[in-house]
Amino acid sequence: MRRHCGKSPRQSAYFMRNAGIRHEAAGLATLLCVLGILKRDGGAATGALEQLRFGETFCEAYETFLSLNERPQISFEHACHLLRSLEKQNEICLDDCEGCGSPLVVLRYAQRPKVCEFCASTRPPARPGLSVGDC
Ligand SMILES: [Zn+2]
């Protein structure tokens, strides 16, 4: 079996594995943005104090994430990887949902979903002729 050059994208593909993980990844990315850890322009913390504060805030973000998800699939290690990957933006990056504007975690070089899991599930495509109501 031939190997591709560079790093395996498998780790980042983890965040695309199923709807639940995609939803969690988007929620976690939103938290990281809101708390100012994830800079969408790519700037990262540099000074020692900034790094320390960064670590604290990251833990805070992950704890908030845990409190929002009953049985989270994304572990702390995966959360770290998500943050690093979104900073580097070479495998996955953030996009905006066309429906509600919330951040979407997408694979950089794959076909991107236009809407988030929430919009996709609450606004299904209209399918006339399939209504079964009898009222
Ligand atoms: Zn949406």
Which features characterize this protein?
two-stranded antiparallel sheet, 135 residues, 2 strands, mainly alpha, binds zinc ion
Structure overview:
The protein is mostly helical and 135 residues long. The chain has one domain. The chain has 5 helices and 2 strands. It has a two-stranded antiparallel sheet with strand order 1-2. Helix 2 crosses helix 3. The chain starts with 9 loop residues before the first helix and ends in a 13-residue tail after the last helix. About 4% of the residues have low confidence. It binds zinc ion.
Question: What's the arrangement of secondary structure elements?
Answer:
Layout: H1 10-13, H2 19-34, H3 48-68, H4 76-88, E1 92-96, E2 103-107, H5 117-122
Antiparallel strand pairs: 1-2
Bound molecules: zinc ion (ZN).
Residues 97, 99-100, 102, 115-116, 118-119 line the site of zinc ion (ZN).
- The proportion of residues forming helix, as a percent range, comes to 40-55%
Bound molecules: zinc ion
Number of strands: 2
What structural class should be given to the helix and strand makeup? mainly alpha
Q: Give the DSSP E fraction (strand runs of 2 or more residues).
A: 5-15%
Order the strands across the largest sheet as they lie in space.
Answer: 1-2
Radius of gyration: 17 Å
Number of domains: 1
Largest sheet: 2 strands, antiparallel
Q: Note the overall shape.
A: globular
The averaged pLDDT comes out at 82
Oligomeric state of the chains in view:
single chain
Count of DSSP-assigned helices: 5
Which stretches are poorly predicted, pLDDT < 50 over at least 5 residues? Answer: 5-9
Q: Report the order of strands and helices.
A: HHHHEEH
Q: Separation of termini?
A: 60 Å
